[in-house]
């Protein structure tokens, strides 16, 4: 009886070890598959976001080599304007007009009510065009501007078109 009890316990221990091994090896396999799926999904999402960002930045001075070359006048004996330094200067100069008591004149809008129109966001599209978002706190709009940089590094702006959205 003692021998058969030991045999049963031995067989039971072996079975428990086999089932435990099978369970944990299946759990590891399941965890690895889940990790691989999640990693693939995240890589696809990152790739998609990179593509969307590249598409969104298509119209920007930072990514337009032809527009960048416009500021390189070294071949004709002129000077080179670095677009990396030009972008913040142009943006700052345009936003400086927000301090005007009647509002930024480059929104193309006269003051409506007590609040003045100011430019909130600026995107320099190329060597000539800027698109900007403006508002007075109640109404919002967008403006397409031309900008010019002369030989003395003076920057001037010209309103091309403006659009004020309805409430």
Automatic annotation (TrEMBL):
Domain of life: Bacteria
Segments passing through the bilayer: 6-24
Keyword Transmembrane found: yes
Keyword Transmembrane helix annotated: yes
Keywords: Membrane, Transmembrane, Transmembrane helix
Name the record gives this protein: Hydrolase
Species assigned in the record: Flavobacterium tagetis
